[in-house]
Amino acid sequence: MANPTIQLDNSTASLIALVQLGIDVPASGSIIVTVNPNTILVNEVINDPELNVFVDAGDITLTVDAVALTAQQSKAYVGYNRVLNNENASLAPTVNDDADAGYSVNSAWIDTTNIVSYLCVDPTANGAVWVRTGGGQSSFGSPVSVGIANADGSSGLHTQSDHVHAHADQPGGSLHALVTTLVNGFMSAADKLKLDGLVQQTSGSEFTSLLSSTTLGTFQDAFPTQNIPITVTGVYMIQFEGNIAGSAGSTENEIGITRNGGGGPAVITDSQRLMQGNGGASISTYCHTFVNLTAGDIVTGVFRKASGPGTTTVGNRRITLIRFSVPA
Known about the structure:
Helices cover 10% and strands 36% of the residues. By secondary structure, the protein is mainly β. The chain folds into three domains: 6-81, no CATH class; 86-135, no CATH class; 200-325, Jelly Rolls (Sandwich), CATH 2.60.120. Strands 11, 12, 15, 18 and 20 form a five-stranded antiparallel β-sheet that branches. Strands 13, 14, 16, 17 and 19 form a five-stranded antiparallel β-sheet that branches. The protein has a four-stranded antiparallel β-sheet with strand order 4-1-5-6. A hairpin with a 6-residue loop joins strand 9 and strand 10 (129-135). The longest helix has 11 residues, at 71-81. The radius of gyration is 48 Å and the shape is rod-shaped. The chain starts with 5 loop residues before the first strand and ends with a strand.
C-alpha cells in the first residue's frame, strides 16, 4: 500500500515552525508532505513530538490523501499511527510487550537500569521480537552459579573474560552417569561401601629378634612388641609370615593367630602344623580369610613346639591385616 500524502493545515493566525522536521506551516495556511527521495518520510512526520503537541492542541489539522480531517480526527489519526516507545523502562522487553500492548515495528525500548536499547522488529501478540541495538556503557555483574536446566536469561549485564562460575550444590547423579570400568562418572553408594571394605588396616613386623621355645604344646607370642589393635569392626584377612625352624629331634612346629595377644583366651583359627625337624627350616606363610574382628580386639601371631624334643625357633616375622568389609 502506498504511503498517504499528508497536508498540514495551520488553524492559527501565526506561523508554526516544526524545528526538528525543518517545516514551517504558514499562518492560516497549509503545507503538503509528499513521499519521495527529496522529502521527509510520512512516518517521521506522524511521530514528530513537536507536531504531536500542535495536533493535540488543535492548532494543526491534517488532510490525508485530499480528505480534510477535523481536529478530533487529526488527533485520532496521529495517535493511531504513532509508534509507541518505552523510553524509561527498568528492564528488558519480553515477548508480551507486543501489539496488544500498543507496540509496533520500529517501537523503541530503553532499559535505563541496565543502559541498553532495543528495537521491535515483530510485534506479534505473545511472541514479540525485540533486538538489542546498543548500550551507553558496559555494566558488569557477577556470573551466576552453574544450574541443572537451561535458561535464556534476561539481564543486560555483562561478565568479564576472566569470570568464574561457582559449581554450586548439584543433586548427585544428575550431571554425570555412574562410573564404569571404561568411562569416568559418579560413584554409587554400593561401590563406595565396597571400596571402603578394601582398606588395609595395619601391619607389624619384627626382624631383629629370634624367638625360641622348648616347651611342648604351648603357644607363645611371636610378636611381643607388635600386637595390632583393631579400630574398625569388620571381616578381615590375616596373614602371618615367618621363618620357622626346629633343632634336631624337633619334628613338628606350628604358627597361628590369636585374639587379644599371645596370652589371649582362644586361638582365632586352627594353626598350621609344619613338619620340619632335625634342624630343618622353612619360610612359612599362614593366611586366614573371613575372620570377624571387633573394634578393640588385639591381634597377634603365635608359634609353638608341637612334638618331639629339641627347640623350635621363629624369626623375621610379619603380620598383616586387610579389612574386606564393614558389617551393615
